[in-house]
């Protein structure tokens, strides 16, 4: 099964990707991981990507697309994959189609996790991170002691600077503006599955499985 996963920040995309990956026995490939691996392995494209990253610039499309092509044609992706973080623009989506064509593989589904802004803002503004061990908690779900110490290690819990409503709203706006056109593209192909991302982790996973014809 070959999938692309979309979801705004704070929607729990990483968790669902992990569940899908285990269930379908296919790798979860995020653009971040792919880049890090290519840089670490010092591939030609990895070194090229690094030269941009070192200057604090975005890795250009042709380099990123080359890296994705290498990964998708590798042994670990022969039974499928869950692609995460790419494509973000229409030209990238079209370039990806060309890769699929070259590799003679077919994209099965594009899964989009949908959560309204209000819910994401609620989730992210209630997020607390441990300064010591990095554990992430949600004040709405997790039991945090009154002294505001990490239940795991006793470290101090804090709120990340970018977990404030205005910054979150802006991130969501950027996400929606850039991805809507890409989602429309896949909707026209008839392979887009939009899933309501609010609820229990396992319930959402169940909805994803059903939408792509997988029985529990
Ligand atoms: Zn801790």
Automatic annotation (TrEMBL):
Assigned keywords, A-Z: ATP-binding, Cytoplasm, Kinase, Metal-binding, Nucleotide biosynthesis, Nucleotide-binding, Transferase, Zinc
Its EC number(s): 2.7.4.3
Family statement drawn from the similarity comment of this UniProt entry: Belongs to the adenylate kinase family.
Annotated stretches, region: NMP: 30-59
Ranges where the record places region LID: 126-163
UniProt-listed GO biological process terms: AMP salvage
Residues annotated to bind Zn(2+): 130, 133, 150, 153
Self-association and partners: Monomer.
Pfam family, one: ADK_lid
Name of the featured protein: Adenylate kinase
Function: Catalyzes the reversible transfer of the terminal phosphate group between ATP and AMP. Plays an important role in cellular energy homeostasis and in adenine nucleotide metabolism.
Tagged with keyword Cytoplasm: yes
Taxonomic source organism: Kryptobacter tengchongensis
